[in-house]
Amino acid sequence: PDEKGDALVDIAWALCQTRDFVELNRPPGVLIRGIYRIALDRECTEEERAAALRVMNEAAAQRDQVPALEGLLAGLLRGPESVLRRVLGR
User: Fold this and answer.
1) pLDDT > 90? residue 59
2) Which of 3, 58, 65, 71 has its CA 20 to 30 A from that of 10?
3) How far apart (Å, rounded) are the C-alpha atoms in residues 83 and 15?
4) What is the longest distance spanned by two Cα atoms in the chain?
5) pTM score above 0.85
6) Distance in angstroms between the alpha carbons of the first and the last residue of the chain
7) Are 1 and 84 spatial neighbours (Cβ–Cβ below 8 Å)?
8) Is residue 90's pLDDT more than 80?
9) Which residue in 26, 88, 33, 36 sits closest to 60, CA to CA?
10) Alpha-carbon distance 14 to 83, whole Å?
11) CB–CB of 75/55 below 8 Å?
12) Distance, CA of 14 to CA of 73 (rounded, Å)
């Protein structure tokens, strides 16, 4: 699961580097919702959303939104709720 998670994080990073991603200019809340759906196959709770938004807002102020998204995805994929751990039975 960790190797597959790392591969997904690498793909997400590459997609975030595209002109299409930049031009779409998705709000942080939409990006967070998508990350939770990909990594955990569920919506985030209000508490999770608020915490992630705080990190994303701090990152946006420093123009580091992509690394913040990458870190969120990596953390979720390495956690016990990860779809990779459930699907692979680990």
Assistant:
1) no
2) 58
3) 20
4) 39
5) no
6) 8
7) yes
8) no
9) 26
10) 21
11) no
12) 13
